[in-house]
Amino acid sequence: MxxxxxxxxxxxxxxxxxxxxxxxxxxxxxxRPEVSTPLTSIRRLAEGxxxxxxxxxxxxxxxxxxxxxxxxxxxxxxxxxSVGHHDHIYxxxxxxxxxxIAAMLIRATGRRxxxxxxxxxxxxxxxxALLIVLIDTVPAVxxxxxxxxxxxxxxxxxxxxxxxxxxxxxxxxxASKTDVSDNDKSSSSRxxxxxxxxxxxxxILWMLFWTFYVLLLSSIVLNKVGGLQEMFEKTYGFIxxxxxxxxxxxxxWYFFAEVFDFFRSFFLIVxxxxxxxxxxxLAIRLKHRPCFLAFxxxxxxxxxxxxxxxxxxxxxxxxxxxxxxxxAEMQFTFFLFFGYIGVSLLSPVMHNLWIWRGTGNANxxxxxxxxxxxxxxxxxxxSVSSMIKHDRKLRLLVTA
Length: 400
Description:
By secondary structure, this protein is mainly α. It has 15 helices and no strands. Helix 1 packs antiparallel against helix 4, helix 12 runs antiparallel to helix 15 and helix 14 packs antiparallel against helix 15. The longest helix is centred in the last third of the chain and has 38 residues. Keywords: Endoplasmic reticulum, GPI-anchor biosynthesis, Membrane, Transmembrane, Transmembrane helix.
């Protein structure tokens, strides 16, 4: 039943995306500040591709701030044909296909997590105790796995999240009641508690190799029309210094438009280092749940990034369904659900009152961005708190 529901909802989601691609031109979604940012705008990509075709640097004029590899892949699809058709339809179809692949990867990741979770709980004789929770939350997992609005398919990690290591220390008095032999339990406990540097070393080598490979391809694409130094200045430098203050769904554009110039460098350091300071404490506390840690990191980046969009929230909200069992008792779910809906409805209205009607000001639109940031912050805090409480309950069930 769950598989049938998944494929029916998947077909409905893909059909809805195709309708928007074919008949959504009048909605002008590509120009909405909630959807399009200086980093994700297709129009800016088309401008960069045109400059490159004219033997000029694609980063001239501060229009394009993306990767040069995107110019090679998506640039030809932004041209206008002589017969009047737009290749951007084919570009949109590529996005739909990539989003569908992302949804399949999330579904596969969810299955791996569920199998690992059931195996770990079975070894602890906790399957019966948590059966009600599993029954109540499986429909929510199936529902959230059908999220299709993702932009960064490479952020989808895999690997089973497990309860804390202390949970696997089973008392000898209950050893006779379990179906798993003593040797299996000791080897399982040893596997969980053991830390190996070999996978870390392999990951670092893999990361260095692909970084060098991507930089080499970027250098080839920018040959005779630019260089890597200009690319770093117009991409990473543009992101870190928040040079574009056009309105978006975030709060940094308003803050840096109001702050004095001699304080700008100080607050840039504060906002950028804020993300760095969260990395190590969260990694230490959630080291036993790597997938959930990746979800939290993705949400924090979406909150604090310079040019946010609704696509960033769609990414981590899609990953939220992977932890429906652990987050079943999360607080303020009613407030968060309708808060996201309210911000989605009010943001276009406030932008219209400010820009087109002239009956409002920037504070109207900034208020929706501030509320949006607060909602995301509450979601992150409550998610981490609920996960810690869930692990604590498992630990108490074992030690009781």
